[in-house]
Automatic annotation (TrEMBL):
Domain Gamma-butyrobetaine hydroxylase-like N-terminal stretches: 14-98
PANTHER family in UniProt: OS02G0197800 PROTEIN
Comp. bias intervals (Basic residues): 134-143
Keyword Isomerase (UniProt): yes
Database matches in Gene3D superfamilies: 3.30.2020.30
Chain segments carrying region Disordered: 122-143
Keyword tags: Iron, Isomerase, Metal-binding
Protein name according to UniProt: 1-(5-phosphoribosyl)-5-((5-phosphoribosylamino)methylideneamino)imidazole-4-carboxamide isomerase
UniProt GO MF annotations: isomerase activity; metal ion binding
InterPro entries: GBBH-like_N, GBBH-like_N_sf
């Protein structure tokens, strides 16, 4: 991941609110928000979530109760969030966190629409729709 764009507003405060399951973030340009851990998890910048190109995104579901176990600095440009479901590969740059903060409501509504269209749920106990279940690996046919 490249460094920051020169005009990226830097965060002035980042606070984890464990009981509320939110990350509070404020930027030097005055933009601020409280982002749910679920929102951050389903919008992880990792390849596991975003894929390796347009159209390869993987819908995340059942993440309503996910927690952030830790937040680790990555240089002077990002943080890595360690989630309770074991996900830990997303590097959240200041650019990306600013985007998530700025576009929070639109992104959240898009996500809820994607869940509904897929017949999936935010609830981790909900049944997984058949078309979203992992497919078993195919045997290579060699013995």
């Amino acid at each position: 991941m490249a460094g920051l764009s020169p005009d990226t507003p830097l965060p002035t405060a980042i606070t984890l609110h464990q009981r509320a399951r939110e990350l509070e973030i404020a930027f030097e340009d005055g933009l601020a928000a409280r982002l749910s851990f679920e929102f951050l998890r389903v919008h992880s910048p990792s390849a596991e979530v975003r894929g390796h190109g347009q159209g390869q995104e993987v819908l995340q579901f059942g993440k309503r109760d996910v927690e952030v176990r830790d937040i680790l600095p990555v240089g002077q440009y990002a943080v890595r969030l360690l989630f309770s479901d074991g996900h830990d590969s997303g590097i959240y740059s200041w650019d990306y966190l600013h985007l998530l903060t700025r576009e929070h409501e639109n992104l959240w509504q898009q996500y809820l629409g994607q869940l509904e269209a897929a017949g999936a749920s935010r609830d981790p106990a909900a049944p997984v729709p058949e078309h979203l279940r992992p497919r078993p690996a195919k045997a290579c046919g060699k013995h």
